[in-house]
## 1
Amino acid sequence: MSYDNTLALVRQAAETGKITSTAQKNIAAWLTEPRYGEYAGQVAEMVESGQWQTLDDVFWTVIPFGTGGRRGRMYPVGSNAINDRTIGESAQGLADYVKEQLGADGNPSCALAYDTRHRSEHFARLCAEIMVASGFRVFFLQGYRSTPELSFCVRYKHASCGIMVTASHNPPRDNAVKAYWSTGGQLLPPHDKGVIDRVMSVNAIERVPFDTAVADGRIEICQDEVDPKYVAAVVEQSIPGPRDLKVIYSPLHGVGASAVLPVLEAAGFKDVELFSLHAKPDGDFPNVPGHVSNPENPQVFDTMIAHGSHNGADLAVATDPDCDRIGCAAPLTMAKGAPWLTLTGNEIGALLADYMCDSRKAAGRLSPQNFIVKTLVTTELTRRIGDSYGVKTFGDNLVGFKWIAGVIDREGADKFLYGTEESHGYMAGNYNRDKDGGLATMLLCELAAKLKAQKKTLHQKLDDLFWQHGVHIERTVSVQMPGSEGMLRMKEVMAQFRAAPPKTLAGSPVVQVRDYFDQTVILPGGGKQPLDGPKGDLVILDLALEGNYVAIRPSGTEPKIKLYMFTYEPPEQLANLEDAKQMLDERLLAMEADMRAFAGV
């Protein structure tokens, strides 16, 4: 069918500024190239009815297959949307690359799971059909399952790769696929680039009907086998101790109940309440603020705190929709009626680091060969805790748990103690290679129960760590920059911090700039030194005040810039803890104001 008249309308829209030139190019491809033939009619209808804003939104770029996968808004058509074509390209590209790596004698296989989002099961079945058509055996977790269980399944089933259909904590309109390698971790170099290249060059996508593949054994429905093995693997990381703890748990309408509840029960926690307001699996996330199920957001705990305070609970924990991250809230003291407060991802991470080190030491199983792994934008309190126990910390890692997983495989899983990142992700053990909300909830409950027996709360334990290692207060701010204009603005902001960074922040001189993209250290006089670190789109500005610095980077999964601010007061300078906290909070506010003013955001 000819779409000459439709193409003329597209050209005219671009000339009059109704759509971008890149949208024009991508719309033309979907109207004329055979691989998009089944979608051309719908695209033509949108053009002919003048839906220019929507067309520009879903066509202004090709949604990137990043180093972890593809994530974005769902829409039936469009190169910049999650739909059957873009998901299909992702699965086909992964299949093509894995087969190439295995060679002719390989027996490719893929583990697959999905979350509670709209169309997640549909996309998972689509991926399974494509993998089977490419000669793969598929291990399929039917029903809502967690991302860490998918990572475990890859390792347990010795699969060649894995696919998880989830958009984590994104808004309800979004979905995504995360791609995993045979290690159970997300794709690392050189495989990430190899898969991206194949995804971007996919032409035809072949499929075998799902039910046909199940009937002939090419798709193995395996959750009944994998579920108990996963729970057992998590509980193997459990540390003996008190279990007297009243816990309120929320899956935030996601998959978490399938992992957290059986794990806590097997680990000996009997007084666990599933928070009814968030219990129903629902891709609209109806009962959380803004319909965004993100445990980093303190507001998601408001109703849980009110309920927990009334019912005498000791701890409230929530996991994000695919249950790989957690957040928590706890009373400030053990006093009856004490106010509650949430903990940041950095605070939870530091508490768990100390718990892991202290427990290993008490059991006589901690050695200088053990190591902790964190990212460059995760609190240095974790490193200082590790140092105090004589444990090495690998902290020179870009954002993303795949880099933590890579260090584990490089340095030896038998020596690995604990991994953490500021965005509420934590892991331990050798059963998977991704952060695990089920494991983190179990360890946090163990620590809270141990502290309760000592008549302490998590907040009081954190104060103990501050007295010992210095006060560390951090803040992360996300600035949304959607669409084509947002992408350009993000590049401008990053270039601005590289080319002419601010000279002071919060009244403290900037003494150097670490540019991880150019891998250089920029000194105040303009001189440069080589930077020994990973290559990535991250800039860190070190201040004259010891341990105080800021970082800025574009998100790898969402259209936003992230600002990270770190403040520190050494332990030898502490006289009054609350005064120090207030001073650092005020410094953070000044840092944020200066960063926003400089960047124009």
Note: The CA atoms of residues 211 and 312 lie 49 Å apart.
## 2
Amino acid sequence: MSNLTWTEQDAKAVDIARVLAADAVEKVGNGHPGTAVSLAPIAYLLYAKLMKSDPSDPRWLGRDRFVMSAGHSSLTQYTQLYLNGFGLELDDIASLRTWESLTPGHPEFGLTKGIECTTGPLGAGVANAVGFAMSARRSRELYDPQAAPGESVFDHNVYCIAGDGCMQEGVSGEASSLAATQDLGNLFLIYDDNRISIEGDTKIAFSEDVQARYAAYGWDTYHVDFTNGFTTYEEKVAELYDILERAKQVTDKPHFIKVTTIIGWPLPTKQGDHSVHGSKLGGAEISALKAKLGFEDKPFAVDTAVVDATRANAAARAKELRAEWDPRFEAWRAANPGQAELLDRVLAKEAPADLDAALPVFEPGSMATRAASGKVLSALAEAVPELWGGSADLAGSNNTTMAGVNSFIPAERSSHEFTGAPGGRTLHFGIREHAMGNIANGITMDGLSRVYCATFLVFSDYMRTTPRLAALSHVPTTFVWTHDSVGVGEDGPTHQPIEHVMSLRLMPNIDVVRPGDANETAHAWAQILRTKNHPAALILSRQNVPTLDRSEGSGLAGAENTVLGGYVLKEASSEAKVVLVGTGSELQVALAAAEKLEAEGIPARVVSLPCVEWFKAQDADYQEQVLPAGTPKVVVEAGVPVGWKDLLGGNTEAIGIDHFGASADGALLFEKYGVTAEAAAAKAKALIG
């Protein structure tokens, strides 16, 4: 006997969700109604009966998290947010996919209350959900480490709905493999097995046993068959509810529940037809559906009494949950004032007030910026306890392991190099760049910590959608990408990025940061951690670069100016005839070129430009002071030279590389490809003319 209470009112609320999905797509003329129609009972079960939530406080810390990985079926979630009183109203559902609506084609974090993360690229939401589940474990260890398992105010579950498309995308497999390795018992993945994608029946391209695959990963797996072996259709919500409740008792494995459905059920003539996946249903089909379900044949005509009752039940559940949770949370605050202060700061997205004081100061010498970054992270470990992260199997090369901290892995998976602990801060993503980026985004959107992830810059191609989603979502995930140019050397062109840095600058709402030496790297990290509403790409060198002598009398400006994005590193001997602009490891080339020009009597200013976006955020007067519009400029960056005229003005030329590299010593490649002081000086003289 199931413990689920499922009344006629519940069934009616589910049917409201079905007809609203049909009406909304019909009104706008495009969208994805079929899955939202057939998934309505599953989504309603989660929202109205199972998940902990408070519609009046959608970001309540004690809530469970929900991710709609099949983001095209956004109506599956929007209708539940409407029914359960999260702030969406009937007009919002009717405004689906229209200008300035709260119901865009795919769920967007920060736009609609109750949306935990932006989803749309298939499979990414599964990886986001893994990130949320990892965030839950890390958060309880950061803020409440003494609590017994399952008894912390920070303990909660993560639920995700995915479809066939999600299961076919490799990123879901990457993330699911890691979830099993992490023993994420708080993660529940519901797979809508409806066997339909845009091209029709998935059997033309997808034949595997997905449940068996998840069992092989090490997940706790179940199957609920609404089709009864394709004989009759029965929406077995009680069976699904009991499985989800029983699965909670398995705390050392993530949970996979395959639910076999028919897309569009109970549409009278189009259920199971792939046309309902991504097209409106048509007036005749909607009229027949409404007649079948007992609805008035008018658009958006719903029984408001059912909606009111559903909202009242959701509010009552929330009141009961809060009555139990709120006193425990206040007791936790009183008993843990230090952690409570940390939590308040992190929730406000504020960096520590004394962050700069924790930064290391590097003496003049020679050091790769990737190595400097590693030392900065170790120095920040104590000052920024919410910071954690790691690499896609490249920690030793990316220098992303903080000194003296444990790894975020189950203790039994410790190796002779890495010790696992629940409160560990070193993340091991394995060779899974795409999943890594989405997991990091999930952690960031959860908002309870700050995370970074890392690989080689050339392999940012494997994870390109993830900084874009972070930028679209206005969340400050940090992407550390090292081995930034042909300076990689002997590994050859497969590992030498050429177009990557400039192409990242084309992406809106992301800071592309390429520090020129060790001390710029330190201040770059500080500014990244102070940024609240967009991600950063921190681009670092493999090869050593000079750590500049910025002491008084050196003639070089201090590295604290890094936060301005661009600054005058070295002033010309008199009014500058040309400005040499250096980024990253090529800053040294700009300095050497200026020395050559000055020796020839040509006054040359050197500007360090670690971050174009930070520089463009300064006022126009400052930008003009640093890079006067009337003065010729030569940019030195070991990447494609296109784009610099657009960024810095028409009288700008660039020294760069517009072809693939070769397998040879990095310094030799700079010489062979003309990224040299001599070439920059010659370009400057030609510009001066």
Note: Residues 633 and 652 are 5 Å apart (CA to CA).
## 3
Amino acid sequence: MRHRLAALALAAHLILLLAAAPAFAARDTLTIGLSQFPANWHPSIEPMSAKHFILDATRRPFTVYDADWKLTCLLCTALPSVEAGTAALETRADGRQGYAVTYTIHPDAKWGDGTPITTKDVLFTWEVGKHPQSGFTNADLFSRDIVGIDARDDRTFTIHREKPLCTYAEINDFAVLPAHLEKAVFDSDPAAYRQRSRYETDTTNPGLWYGPYKITAVESGAHVVLEPNPTWWGPKPPFRRIVVKAIENTAALEANLLSGGLDMIPGEAGLPFEQALAFEKKHGGKYTVIFKPGLVFEHIDLNLDNPVLADARVRRALLLAVDRGAISRQLFENRQPVAHNQVNPLDRVHVEDFRHYPYDPKEAAKLLDEAGWGEKRGGIRVNAKGEKLSLEFMTTAGNRSRELLQQVLQAQWKQAGVEVRIANEPARVFFGQTLHERRHKAMALFAWISSPENIPRTTFHSTMVPTAANNWAGQNYMGFRNPEMDKVLDDLETVCEPAANKRLWTRLQQIYADELPSLPLFFRADPHILPKWIDGIVPTGHEASTMLWIETWKVKE
């Protein structure tokens, strides 16, 4: 998010961790525990919650949604708007309309080596992002959405958007890169940039970072050290040193917190819900425990290139055979609601007018019969060729919640005559390579976290399927290709009139529910376990992590 550790190995590991942990952490040092270690360090290549949580202390996006779910500026001085004269419709030479949107970089913004952040960096970032071999996750933003960038001066630039977008002011995924460090690396071999970037080869170079903190030490798979960035232009960061430890076994992660080896476990990549719930009941008086409902969609991505899963009847049967209501009650005390679609009811664009899948084993059996899996041998369905209905099921090894959920799902599917084989991997492998290169053979359990009203283009558009040809760009790990969905996603960007926009959102959710390219499970409420002596941490409930506002955290007197 490896096989599970044997009991003796785990016990020995815990003893070593407990012996090495200090009794109390110094107040000028904050030690944070995560259940994942980043697979890479580039801000625009490979999405992973643990990576972005750490990087959010070292960088600031131009725009982002805040804890109130409102778009705001962090690296820019003000959001562009038509009223302010910094955004305007324009007609290009080909007769098509788009937006010209102007931003100004904060006048004091500098890279950690003292080099000013300028429009040269902006132009270079666009050059990299639109290159077909760069491997950027949201390559569409750079290669399709942005058709031009004009540098007005060293700090001011105008982006020309390909369409008259409803969200013209938002450039959340435009993660500016340091041209003075990265340009020579990129120009030498664009196809190898993802491996040769200084983010991978020289991670502690201060010139890569420009937030309140910079990365000063990395022990791969173990920990990262952050220290104040002297060129940071905002309020003084609260800690002299932040150590982020990765402990992929969540039982060991909790043990480290209780022993004093950790100060906090954030919700972005921390304890599973039910483990945190038990923790709160036992130790809630010693910690501040916040369960933040939000736009976190726990689901199972299906590899639609698998001939078994290519049949929509099989996909629907798999969902009908799962008692998600019982899972929510028994594992999560109904505090993590069943997901019937990929759009959360907390989001303004959610609708209810789509197909739902209640727990219905009889209907599941009927669909499997129709799909050619009517005979059973030894309790497992087979087709006319005698092939078993057998599927591989993957998730992040060491995540107790997901591994328990896997076992429940495996048992329920076995009752439906479906054999499920579990093959889990450490998070850095699962996210860094398996999903990224679509190596999952059948089913992959994980979560997407998004911003409010996020158009899921990178996950559902047919152009966003990662392949070797596009250097594994995009997040459509399912291989979902649906022309109507493509058109809805395209139209959602520019159809801004409320009633028409709602109709498009309705159709998107209907297509998803009819086709089921992934299996929706539940919407997470992520648990943040914080020390009593810290204040100012406000979970957002969406993809922007609490670390984006770390300069507002305070040590209580």
Note: The first strand starts at residue 29 and ends at 34.
